[in-house]
Each structure stands twice: as structure tokens, then as C-alpha cells.
Specification:
The protein is α/β, with parallel strands linked by helices and 706 residues long. Helix content is 52%, strand content 14%. A hairpin with a 2-residue loop joins β2 (55-60) and β3 (63-68).
Length: 706
């Protein structure tokens, strides 16, 4: 399997930070003192950026450029960049006070942030990479227009963080090199990424009756048996795990249970058990020490447990050994369960520290004679990080939350649009007219059964976008998932994306090259992770596969460099031609893609004309065969595509003639007669005399004055 190419396309977030008044600073300080000050300044900025997951790409004088999304994409890169920029403002304020006291010089910064697609190259896995694209220029222009001590963000960044950030719109900026004004917002504050337990109620739950019934049954058994049970809900991001857990928690709460919810942050936690500290604060209220004394007693062996838990609730750290902390948590859960059934919901377990998972494991194993339900929500990658999670326990259950079926997905689209027309809190800005049936069908198809994707796409359409577009927030989730793949796994998905439909092992081998090892185990593993799915067997019974949804295929494909895509299409066309030379449509389509991709890279590349000519020949052949079989509309479409590729090539006249015949057969006589241009005097058309005989006679030009 080929190594991941050094060049790829990614949607990243760029941060530009520049020091204001650096010229005056250099005039007032000794060169060595200036260097010492600037090194401290660079270290300060790097620490803020890297702490949030950014990669400092370069220093340009006293400006710093950082990228969020390199070497690895994360779905919250835009929010990380915003929080890093706000941290920089705070840190520079403190730094400036010291510089003013020590040297009598002012220090301040301004920052610009923008999100968009770049081409990356270089040693990305080494922690740095070169990026290029318009997004870099726009981020730099935003920084240049930002007032001192302020942050300006672009439209796509604003779109990604608007739900958790405080921003103020500013007048669109007229910037050098941009024809249209650039929308911008001033960033004032940004909260943490919200895990599912913290999000709002949204629209009413659709489907999930079976999963809700299983959770309710598990809770009933916990109450009946006075036992502890661990339930883990697995599902892809956005599939509805958190919404299902909220509805179940409401049912359990109405049934007398004590319910507390928390989530694991993707980064930046104050300690390995910090999510448990959040749970403790919710369970113990405003006076945790008094409540702990009430539950565990103010004297005796449980005093140490109460002290450790009070410290954990306050600081995120217990101040004692891990084993003693687990024992204290076990005692508390037993005591709380003795009062009322206890339900603890922990979201985003895939981001949990190993200590947190071990603590939950301990509670599940050792809480006895108390009705306690531990409900963990996780993406499937939790099992990749900890394959043994929940295994070997009689009191553990795993449930998978699948995508919505077509009818349920359609119902969700209609509920969201109805909620918006009614002025609800989800999509109050949705246009009043109801969505037409074809638009609903397209939304259902694009969302692929993911409720979050449904909501994001409906919201995008409500703002006037095309239903076939994909919101950046949705792309970010998919891209982050794909970016965690190993190079050989990503390569298989890239080959599948180039093929575009169903494929066999031989198809993959043709794209991977002779030196690649067998892809069979990788394909099966990708299918297990729902990135590929089985298709109907081929004519000889050989296994066939396809990408598990158009969104995944599109994200993989657009993440490839255009040159890599073009080469893949050419190799697959050659493979199809060896396998069955009469499959002109498939061969021509892949060569057509390759030609256009090469033309976008370099119109002067001689391979463009060669590939276009070959593509036109195959598409033209497919069109004439479709015409001979009476498939007129299909023939017209193929011949038009062939004609668009021929230009002034010798084959153009033959294609025009076939297209005229197809139009004539379709009943468009005027178009058919007007289609072929007159032959130059003495010219012999490509295709010989038969083509010349098929060219309709051209009208003679009128003499002047006639």
C-alpha cells in the first residue's frame, strides 16, 4: 500500500498574530535586550497556540502564523483557534506589564483567524507543514485590519463557532487582492466545546424506541436487583446518543432517580478525573463537605473518603492515591444509591483519560446493594483505544445507536422545518414556505441518517444554500474521523473514492500498484468501522464493496491532491480497459475526470489534450452505441460530454455529427441541423467518407446586397 502523499487538501483554521509598534520597540531597546524580549514573546505565543492543539508554522518578523488542523484534523479546530487567540490576548497583557516595567516599552498584538481549504505539504507528521491557499491570505488581511488588542475572524470560522462564541459583526473589510468585501466579526469570548450532555433539548426525539426501551429495562433491573450496571451507548458523532441519553435521564428522573450528567472534554482537562469532579459538584450541591458528612459520616473510616471527594469536587484532584479515590467513589455511589436510584451519565468516553475509565470500571465492579446505573456514551473509537472496555462483566451492556432509517430521517426533516416555521428555538429563521417533496428527499439523502447532519443541513438550506452542499461543521466531523486513519487505511479509502462506486479486490490492486500488500484485511476492518460496506457479489461471486455513504466518499476524494486524483482515474481507466475494452462509458468517464483535473492544475500540460482526446473517443463511442440501441437521451448526454472535450481536435466533427443524429432522433430537428459546422474547403473529416456523408449540407452564405 502506498504511503500517504506529502501533499493533500485540508480544511484548516489559520491564526495570524502580529505585534503592534515593533519598530518603535526596536529603536528603544539594545539589540540583545530586544532579542531576549522577542524570544520570550515567541515562547509565550507558542505555548498558547500549542496548548490548544495548534502548530506554529512560521515566524515572520514579529508575526506568528499557526495552523489548526495540521498534522491532524479535529472537528473543533476553529474553536481551539479562537480559544488560543483569546488566551494570547490575556497572556500578552501580563507580558506587556512586565515589559513596560522592565524596559518602559509598550507591547500589544492584533490577531486574525480564518478557516478554509489549503494544500499541505512537508513533514506534517513531524509537527510542522507548509500550507498554501487563499485562506492564508485572508487570515493575514484580517489581522492587518484588526484594531490593537482585538481579534477578527472570518465568515467560515464564525459559522463554526457561533453557537459557543460571543462575537460582534464589523463592517465588511475592503482588503488588498480581494474583489468583494470580506465579512468579519470581532471575537469577544469562546466557551469550551459542548459535549452532548450540555446541549439544548432540540427537536423531539425521532425513532429510538427500541434503544430507549432497552435503557428503561436496564434501569428497572437495577432498581429491582439493587445492583450496579454499566451501559455503553456506541454511535458515530451526531447520530443521537446524547439526545437518547437525555430522554432516558428524564424518564429515570420522573421515576425517582437521582440523575447527574457530565462529559469528557477533547483536550484541556484540569486532571484525569476532572469529569468526575463535575459529577460530584452536581450531586453534592453548593456545600459538598456538609453533604459528604451527611452521606458518609463525620467520623470513622469514611472521613478520609469524604475529605478526598471534597477535594476532588473542588480542584479536580483528590490529593490521595488512585486506589483510595476509587474506594471513596464506590462508597459515595453506594450511599447515594441507598437514598434513591442513581443514574450517572458520562458523555464522550472516547476522550476519557485511562484513569477515568478505570474508576468507572471499579464502581461497576464493586458497588453492591445499591441501584446504580452508569451510562457511558462513546464513539466506536473507544474500543480501538481500549478493546476490553465493558468486557468480562455480567453487569455490562453495549448498545449501538444506528443512523435513522429513511422514513424516520424524513420525519426529522419535516419536524425541524415545522419548528422553524412555528418560530421555535431551533430554526426560527427558516423560510415560512414548507419544504417541497424533492427538497426533503435531497436532504434525507445528503444527511445519510445522521440527526446532527440533518439539523445542520436543514439550517444551511434555511439560509438559502443548496441542499447538495455540505456544511463545514459536518465536513469537520467526517474529516476528523478520517484523519485518524493509518496511511494504508486512508489509501484504500482514496482508491475507493476514485472508483466512485462498487469495487473488488482486483480494482483496489490496480490502483495500489504491484508493490502494495493485500488490502483484504484493511477493507474488512474499514467495513467493521462503517467506512466501507459490502455490496452485492459480482458476476463470478467475488466480494464487492463500496464507500459507506456519499459524504464519506466526497470528503476522502476532496482531501486528495488533484494530481493524485487524476493519476488514480487514469490507472483505473487502464484497468477497466484491460478487463473489458468495450466498457467505453466507464473508461471515458474516468479519463474525463483526469483530463479536467490536469487542466485545473496546468492547462499547458500535454497530458491534458492527450487524456481529453482519449476520453472523448470513449464517450463518443459509448454515445453512438447508446444511439444504436435507441437510448436517445443517454446518447445525447454522452455525446455532449465528448464534444466538450474535443475542442478543435480532428475527432470533433465525428462527435458533432453523431450528436446531430441523436438530437434529430430526439425530435429536435432545428438543433440537429445547426449542430455540425461546415467543413473547410478540401478538408477530410475524421472518420472518413462515412462521416462526411452524414454531415448535413450547409446553407450557402448570402452574397452582399442580396
Amino acid at each position: 500500500m502506498r504511503e500517504r502523499t506529502a501533499q493533500s487538501r485540508k480544511t484548516v483554521t489559520i491564526v495570524f498574530c502580529d505585534m503592534v509598534g515593533s519598530t518603535a520597540l526596536s529603536e528603544r531597546l539594545d539589540a540583545e535586550a530586544l532579542r531576549h524580549l522577542m524570544l520570550r514573546y515567541y515562547a509565550l505565543l507558542s505555548d498558547c497556540l500549542e496548548r490548544h492543539g495548534g502548530t506554529v508554522e512560521k515566524y515572520i518578523g514579529d508575526a506568528v502564523m499557526a495552523v489548526f488542523g495540521i498534522p491532524a484534523l479535529r472537528e473543533d479546530d476553529a474553536l481551539r483557534a479562537a480559544r488560543a487567540a483569546l488566551d494570547i490576548l490575556t497572556a500578552v497583557e501580563t507580558f506587556a506589564e512586565g515589559a513596560r516595567g522592565a524596559h518602559g516599552v509598550p507591547v500589544a498584538v492584533r490577531i486574525g483567524i480564518h478557516t478554509g481549504e489549503v494544500v499541505t505539504s512537508g513533514a506534517a507528521d513531524a509537527g510542522h507543514a507548509l500550507v498554501s491557499g487563499e485562506v492564508v491570505n485572508v487570515a493575514a488581511r484580517l489581522e492587518q485590519h484588526a484594531p490593537t488588542g482585538q481579534i477578527l475572524i472570518g465568515a467560515d470560522t464564525h459559522r463554526l463557532i457561533a453557537q459557543v462564541a460571543e462575537t460582534v459583526p464589523v463592517p465588511p473589510l475592503t482588503v488588498k487582492g480581494k474583489r468583494d468585501p470580506v465579512p468579519a466579526w470581532r471575537l469577544l469570548a469562546a466557551g469550551p466545546l459542548e459535549h452532548g450532555a450540555s446541549r439544548g433539548p432540540g427537536v423531539a426525539l425521532v425513532d429510538r424506541h427500541d434503544e430507549l426501551a432497552q435503557l428503561t429495562l436496564a434501569f428497572a433491573r437495577v432498581r429491582r436487583d439493587r445492583a450496579c450496571h454499566l451501559v455503553t451507548l456506541y454511535g458515530d458523532p451526531g447520530v443521537g446518543k446524547s439526545r437518547l441519553a437525555r430522554d432516558f435521564a428524564a424518564v429515570a428522573g420522573d421515576d425517582g432517580a437521582t440523575v447527574a450528567r457530565t462529559g469528557c472534554p477533547p483536550y484541556g482537562s484540569e486532571g484525569s478525573l476532572a469529569p468526575l469532579a463535575d459529577l460530584l459538584r452536581r450531586l453534592l450541591g453548593d456545600a459538598p463537605a456538609e453533604r459528604l458528612a451527611e452521606l458518609l459520616g463525620a467520623a470513622g473510616p469514611d472521613t478520609a473518603a469524604a475529605t478526598a471527594l471534597a477535594r476532588l469536587a473542588g480542584t479536580g484532584r483528590s490529593g490521595t492515591s488512585f486506589d483510595e479515590t476509587c474506594w471513596a467513589l464506590q462508597r459515595l455511589c453506594t450511599a447515594l444509591g441507598g437514598e434513591h436510584p442513581l443514574v450517572l451519565v458520562i458523555d464522550d468516553l472516547q476522550w476519557a483519560h485511562e484513569d477515568l475509565l478505570a474508576a468507572l470500571d471499579h464502581i461497576a465492579d464493586w458497588v453492591q446493594d445499591a441501584p446504580v446505573l452508569l451510562l457511558g456514551l462513546a464513539r466506536p473509537e473507544l474500543l480501538e483505544q481500549r478493546p476490553s472496555w465493558g468486557s468480562g462483566k455480567l453487569n455490562a451492556t453495549a448498545l449501538v445507536v444506528p443512523p435513522l432509517g429513511g422514513d424516520d430521517c424524513r420525519e426529522l426533516v419535516l419536524r425541524l422545518s415545522d419548528r422553524g416555521r412555528a418560530g421555535g428555538d431551533v430554526l426560527a429563521h427558516l423560510a415560512p414556505p414548507p419544504l417541497p417533496g424533492p427538497a426533503v428527499d435531497r436532504l434525507v439523502s445528503r444527511s445519510e441518517g445522521n440527526p446532527l447532519f440533518v439539523e445542520q443541513i436543514v439550517e444551511m438550506v434555511a439560509e438559502g444554500a443548496d441542499p447538495d452542499d455540505v456544511p463545514l461543521s459536518v465536513r469537520a466531523i467526517i474529516a476528523a474521523r478520517l484523519d485518524r486513519l493509518a496511511p494504508e487505511e486512508r489509501a484504500v479509502l482514496e482508491h475507493a473514492a476514485v472508483i466512485g462506486g462498487e469495487f473488488t479486490a482486483d480494482d483496489l490492486a490496480a490502483l495500489a500498484g504491484p508493490d502494495a500488500r493485500g488490502a483484504g484485511p484493511i477493507v474488512r476492518d474499514l467495513a467493521r468501522r462503517r467506512l466501507l460496506e459490502p455490496a452485492d457479489p459480482g458476476p463470478a461471486g467475488e466480494p464487492r464493496w463500496r464507500p459507506a455513504g456519499q459524504l464519506i466518499r466526497d470528503e476522502v476524494y476532496t482531501g486528495m491532491s488533484k494530481l493524485l486524483r487524476a493519476q488514480g482515474h487514469e490507472r483505473f481507466a487502464a484497468h477497466v480497459e484491460r478487463r473489458g475494452p468495450d466498457d467505453h462509458h466507464t473508461i471515458g468517464t474516468h479519463l474525463e475526470h483526469a483530463s479536467r483535473l490536469r487542466a485545473e492544475l496546468d492547462p499547458g500540460d500535454p497530458e491534458v489534450a492527450r487524456t481529453a482526446e482519449s476520453a472523448a473517443a470513449h464517450l463518443g463511442r459509448a454515445g453512438t452505441e447508446a444511439l444504436a440501441h435507441g437510448d436517445i437521451n443517454w446518447a445525447v448526454g454522452l455525446l455532449r460530454r465528448a464534444l466538450a472535450l474535443t475542442g478543435d481536435l480532428p475527432a470533433a466533427l465525428a462527435v458533432r455529427t453523431s450528436l446531430a443524429e441523436a438530437r434529430l432522433a430526439a425530435g429536435h430537428a432545428e438543433e440537429a441541423v445547426a449542430a455540425p459546422p461546415p467543413l473547410p474547403v478540401g478538408a477530410q473529416p475524421a472518420g472518413g467518407g462515412r462521416t462526411a456523408a452524414r454531415v448535413p449540407p450547409q446553407p450557402r452564405p448570402l452574397e452582399p446586397g442580396s
